[in-house]
Structure formats: structure tokens, C-alpha cells
């Protein structure tokens, strides 16, 4: 029978420990880096725009839906800052447009151009902190099926376990990566801030988590970034980031709108 020498045993144990460390580093790197990305709706249901009349689709000049947002007045839209960072040789946020007042992102409602975008001055594209932006429309919304959302008070808190209604047109199947043409809605509970901080190993100030920790299966996740997370029609969250989508123990991350209420009023008057 073959027996390992002490040196071989030691080398084998060192190898095992190194392998564990490498796996941990890869997982953390995915969370902190590229895996901590934009979000999409999974596990939801079809929704009608009259249920969520503040929902907008942020689109490229060619009509490609890439983010969501919330109408907060007839001339202002609230979205995620990372959605407003569009800047290349062919496209920038001012060449993009929004569609309001339709359950489908590809037809109906009203299409409006964007005059300007204001990103929060402390937005950090690396950590995705302060992920909020305001889009000023080139002309006012006039269609009756679109109505501005209500906003929370400055610093208004959300009790743990509160059910949020999250909406958007993002990916509905994590395997096929198919987007939904029809607006989707899902309900997810808020999660204690300390638990959220431990999961993502970062300062979650001005953010909160929501989702089903033990089971996953329902989540906001890519394609729906910038969209609303509402409680009784009040927009408490902006879909911001997260690791993967609808995975157990990795909830979605939302910008806490109440922490930016005074800034929103200063810019928009709303």
C-alpha cells in the first residue's frame, strides 16, 4: 500500500489551502468587480402601465432599451447614474430618448428627447455609490397614461421585511438572457442593512438590499437598472446593482432615494 511521506503530505495540505484561497479570491473578485453589475427582473409577472404610470424606458437613439427610470414630474426623470454615463463615438445621453405611458418598451406611449443629465456629484463608478441621476426632458410629458411618482421624505427609513414592488423590461430568464417586451413586476422584501454590508463587503451607506436570501428566484437585476422600487406608489429605491441575479444569499442593491430627497428638490423643484 502506497504511503505519503511527511513532506508530500505537507505539500498536499499547502496545495489544498492555496486552492481554497484562490477560489475565495475569484468569488470576491467577481462580486467586487464585474459581477457586481447592472440589474434585471427575474421571477416577475406581466404588468400594465396604469399600475405603474411613472415607469419609463430609457433607450438608445435606435430604440434599444437599456435602462429604466421613474417620471417624477412632467419634465424630469429619476434613474441610476450608471445609466446616464452613456458616452462614446456614436451615442451619449443627449442622443438617447425615453418612452413613457406604455406597457411595451417598443411601441405605444410617448417618446421624448433628453435635454440634459445631472449625475450626483459624489457618484462613484467603481463602487457604484450614490448611484442616482436626474434627466431633464426636452419637452413635457402630455400623454394621460403617464403620471409622476411620489417620493419619500428626506431620510425616511424603510422597516426590514417591507415588500417592494420592482418593475422593468429587463432579462426574465437567466439562462436564455431574453428580455421582456412587456413590463414586468415583482415583489421583494427589504433586508437588514448589517446583513447587506456583510454580503457585499462594502460600505452600503445610502443604499439598501432587497430579495429572498434563502431561496432567491425573484429579483431585480441587467436591463432594469435605474428603474423604480416602490412602496404604496412611493419610490423608495432605484435599481442599482448586485451579484448575478435572483441567486440565494445575494440580494439586489438599491439606491436609497430618501437620502437624496433634498438634492432632488434642489435640482428639479419637485
From TrEMBL:
Subcellular location: Secreted
Entry GO terms, CC: extracellular space
Gene3D superfamilies registered for this protein in UniProt: Trypsin-like serine proteases
GO BP term, example: proteolysis
Key word Membrane present: yes
Single GO MF annotation: serine-type endopeptidase activity
Highest taxon, organism lineage: Eukaryota
Signal sequence region: none
Keywords on record: Disulfide bond, Hydrolase, Membrane, Protease, Secreted, Serine protease, Signal, Transmembrane, Transmembrane helix, Zymogen
Spans traversing the lipid bilayer: 12-36
Main location (coarse class): secreted
Domain Peptidase S1 per the UniProt entry, residue ranges: 41-269
Pfam families, sorted: Trypsin
Family statement: Belongs to the peptidase S1 family.
Protein name according to UniProt: Peptidase S1 domain-containing protein
Amino acid at each position: 500500500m502506497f504511503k505519503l511521506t511527511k513532506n508530500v503530505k505537507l505539500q498536499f495540505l499547502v496545495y489544498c489551502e492555496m486552492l481554497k484561497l484562490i477560489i475565495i479570491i475569484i468569488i470576491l473578485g467577481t462580486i467586487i468587480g464585474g459581477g457586481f453589475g447592472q440589474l434585471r427582473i427575474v421571477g416577475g409577472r406581466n404588468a400594465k402601465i396604469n399600475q405603474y404610470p411613472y415607469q419609463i424606458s430609457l433607450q438608445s437613439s435606435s430604440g434599444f432599451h437599456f435602462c429604466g427610470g421613474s417620471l417624477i414630474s412632467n419634465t424630469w426623470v429619476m434613474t441610476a447614474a450608471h445609466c446616464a454615463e452613456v458616452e462614446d463615438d456614436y451615442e451619449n445621453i443627449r442622443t438617447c430618448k425615453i418612452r413613457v405611458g406604455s406597457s411595451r418598451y417598443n411601441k405605444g406611449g410617448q417618446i421624448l428627447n433628453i435635454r440634459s443629465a445631472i449625475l450626483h456629484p459624489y457618484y462613484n463608478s467603481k463602487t457604484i455609490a450614490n448611484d442616482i441621476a436626474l434627466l431633464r426632458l426636452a419637452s413635457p410629458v402630455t400623454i394621460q397614461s403617464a403620471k409622476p411618482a411620489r417620493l419619500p421624505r428626506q431620510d425616511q427609513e424603510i422597516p426590514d421585511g417591507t415588500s417592494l414592488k420592482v418593475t422593468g423590461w429587463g432579462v426574465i430568464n437567466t439562462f436564455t438572457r431574453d428580455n421582456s417586451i412587456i413590463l414586468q413586476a415583482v415583489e421583494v422584501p427589504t433586508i437588514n442593512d448589517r446583513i447587506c454590508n456583510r454580503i457585499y463587503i462594502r460600505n452600503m451607506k445610502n443604499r439598501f438590499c432587497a430579495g429572498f436570501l434563502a431561496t432567491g428566484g425573484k429579483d431585480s437585476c441587467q436591463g432594469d437598472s435605474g428603474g423604480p422600487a416602490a412602496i404604496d406608489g412611493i419610490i423608495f429605491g432605484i435599481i442599482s446593482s448586485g451579484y448575478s441575479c435572483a441567486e440565494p444569499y445575494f440580494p439586489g442593491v438599491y439606491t436609497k432615494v430618501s437620502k437624496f430627497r433634498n438634492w432632488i428638490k434642489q435640482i428639479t423643484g419637485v
